[in-house]
Each structure stands twice: as C-alpha cells, then as structure tokens.
From TrEMBL:
Name recorded for this polypeptide: Histidine kinase
TM spans (from-to): 51-69, 75-94, 101-121, 141-174, 195-222
UniProt keyword list: Membrane, Transmembrane, Transmembrane helix
Keyword Transmembrane: yes
Keyword field contains Lyase: no
Length: 324
C-alpha cells in the first residue's frame, strides 16, 4: 500500500505538471463499467442479468409443461406464470436503464413485492379448515421447503437488502407452517394417539419453518458474502491494473521528457559549437588573409629574383662566347 501510494503521488505530480488532470484518485470499493464506477449492488445486479432471465424462462417453461401435462390450470401455477411475466420484461428493461442505481432499487422492491403479494393472496384465498389430498399437501410441502432457499439465493444475486430477505422468509415460513398443518390433517396425525413417533413428527413439523427460515437466511448471507468477496477481489485487480497503467504512463512520460531533454541538450550543444566555430572563423579571418598576401608577395619576389639570375647567367654566357 505504501508503494501504491507513492505511485499515485508521483502520477499526480506528473499530471499536475503537464496541466492535464489533477491528482489521480482511485476509488476503493467500486468497479468501472461502461457508465463509470459502480458499487457492489449495481455490479452484481448487472452481472446476473442473463441468469435472472434464464431462471424466469425456466420457471415459465416448467409451469406451462405442467399445465399441459395435467390439463389443469391451478392457481399456484397461474401466480407463478404471472410473476414471471411481470418480472422478466422489467428485469430486462432495468438492465439497459440509464440510471442503474434507481433500476436496481426498483427491482429490489419488485422482487420483495411479488412473493409477499403472492403468499398473502394465497393465505386469504385458501380457508384454514379446507381439506386437501395427501399428494397435493406433499407437493406444497416440498415447494414450501425449496422455494425459500431458492428465493434467498436468487435474492443474493440481485442483491436484495437483508431486511427484505427476512420479511420474505417470514412469509414463506408462515406458508410452510400452514402447509404442515394441512399435511398433518390429511395424514390424520392429530388423531394418531400418543405414539412417540407421532409426537416427534409433530415436533419436527412445527419446528421445520424455523429451520427453513434459518437455512434460507444462511444461504442468502453466504451467497452475498461470496459475491462481495469476488467483487472486492475484482476491484483489487482493477485497482492494481489502473495503478500499473498509471505507472506505465508515468514511466513513458518520464522517458519522453528525458529524450526531449536530451534532444534539446544536443541541439544546444550543436548551436554552441556553430557559434564557437563562427567566432573562430571571424577572429582568424583577418590574420589569415594578411598571411596570404605576404606569402603572395614573397612568391612574386622569389620569382623575380629567379628570373633575374637566369637572365644574368644567360648574358654572362653570351659574353663569354663572344670573347672566344
């Protein structure tokens, strides 16, 4: 962390010197998406979009197949298909919303409202003294155990706040308690005598909603923690990547400034050398020209003396021949 702070501090100084941006600040608990940095809730909300749509398609397909197989349209299947028909298009539209924070908040309340309204309507539409066959009670019993656990896992992928999860689990626990009571009535457990096995079954059945509530809440908390740990790990990797990019840009700018300074120094040295040579040529130009004139005069004098000696020698030779 100390080295990271130094890199950020150096990068901030370079950016401040170049006049581009101020000090580079890297958020600690966000990940950058197409719209900018987002918190954990929005990140997970966007990441599980396809999972939510595929889950809705799967549940809707199962409901339709069951309806076609039994040739009966039950109220629970109608509620499931209606919930899927409401949730799926809104979830898909929320994924492409401009403000993802408000879209996540809307889907969070919608995810709570759908099961709560459905369970409340079922509790008011079914009378407490109504008798149902054992097969239907067993099916509702299994769904009453499976639905809250699956709901808690799905809620952790939205993610939904813990208070909403507790409210939904309480509703499912109340529904499961009613289903267990119907199952006992259908199986005549209340009038089975004082057998220890019957007493144990009644005890387990009465405590089962509490167990399911605890398991569902634990599954939601565990799934949320796993998602948050993954988010924090990815955020750390992204911060490390951004810091590496900033350090690389800083090194490139430093290298560019070093090359630029070296080029400027070379140009300054070349200009100084040209000025020095120009000054030398100017200072030595007059003496050299004087020396050239002196050498020319000396050469003319030497050539004149040689011609005179040759002429004298020729005259002496001609006089000697005349005497002979």
């Amino acid at each position: 962390q100390h080295d990271t702070g130094e890199v950020q501090h150096d990068t901030g100084e370079v950016q401040h010197d170049t006049g581009e941006v101020g000090r580079a600040e890297i958020p600690q608990n966000v990940i950058r998406c197409t719209g900018g940095p987002v918190p954990f809730e929005v990140w997970q909300f966007r990441m599980y979009h396809r999972y939510h749509i595929m889950t809705c398609i799967f549940l809707g397909t199962i409901g339709l197949l069951q309806t076609l197989a039994t040739q009966e349209f039950q109220g629970s299947l109608g509620g499931l298909l209606l919930a899927v028909a409401i949730f799926a298009p809104l979830r898909h539209a929320a994924h492409y919303a401009r403000n993802q924070v408000w879209a996540h908040l809307f889907m969070e309340y919608l995810a709570l409202a759908i099961p709560v309204i459905r369970l409340t309507v079922d509790s008011f539409t079914v009378s407490e003294n109504s008798f149902e066959p054992l097969e239907i009670c067993l099916r509702e019993y299994g769904l009453g155990i499976l639905c809250p656990v699956a709901m808690s896992i799905v809620f952790s992928t939205l993610p939904v706040r813990l208070s909403f999860v507790i409210i939904a689990n309480i509703c499912y626990a109340a529904r499961l308690a009613t289903t267990i009571n119907k199952l006992m009535i259908a199986n005549n457990l209340n009038a089975a005598g004082d057998s220890i096995y019957v007493a144990w079954d009644i005890h387990v059945g009465s405590m089962l909603p509490v167990y399911v509530f605890a398991i569902s809440l634990f599954a939601n908390i565990l799934s949320t923690r796993l998602g948050r740990s993954l988010f924090e790990h990815m955020a750390q990797l992204e911060r490390a990547h951004r810091q590496e990019v900033l350090a690389t840009e800083h090194a490139i700018r430093c290298e560019h400034r070093a090359h630029e300074a070296e080029r400027q120094n070379a140009e300054e040295r070349l200009q100084q050398r040209n000025k020095y040579l120009g000054a030398i040529c100017h200072d030595f130009g007059t003496p050299v020209s004087v020396l050239q004139m002196l050498l020319l005069m000396m050469r003319k004098r030497v050539m004149r003396d040689l011609r005179r000696e040759r002429q004298d020698a020729a005259e002496a030779e001609a006089a000697a021949e005349a005497e002979l």
